[in-house]
Design brief:
The chain is α+β, with helices and mostly antiparallel strands and about 110 residues long. Helix content is about 40%, strand content about 25%. It is globular and about 40 Å long.
């Protein structure tokens, strides 16, 4: 059975911010478009087998059921709700940021 995909407002803002940075700061609009296309493609694949992706290794985040996928230099973090058959994309962060602290210290919502 396929899972629904729900991208939270925070994750959507993260993706837009990343694309804007690539387009307007790095002056590479094609790379920005490519990132959005790749993110959409990889996130949609989660509807088939989201639990095939590993949990993060950090103990607190692992206990929260946070998983991730790599998308270019970024990481899309998500939770799986089996009862609702939904994958919640909670953040989309640059891989070299201190994402552990961001996820632990900045509250996230599943809406």
């Amino acid at each position: 059975m396929n899972y629904k995909i729900h991208i939270t407002k925070k994750a959507e803002a993260d993706l837009i911010s990343a694309a804007d940075y690539i387009e307007f700061t790095l002056l590479n609009p094609k790379a920005a478009d490519d990132l959005i296309d790749k993110a959409e493609e990889e996130i949609n694949k989660l509807s088939f087998s989201p639990k095939s992706h590993k949990l993060v290794e950090e103990p607190v985040l692992k206990s929260w059921g946070i998983r991730f996928i790599l998308i270019n230099n970024y990481m899309a973090f998500f939770k799986v709700d089996d009862e609702l058959k939904t994958v919640f994309i909670i953040r989309f962060l640059y891989g070299k940021r201190n994402w552990t602290e961001i996820l632990k210290n900045e509250p996230f919502s599943l809406i």
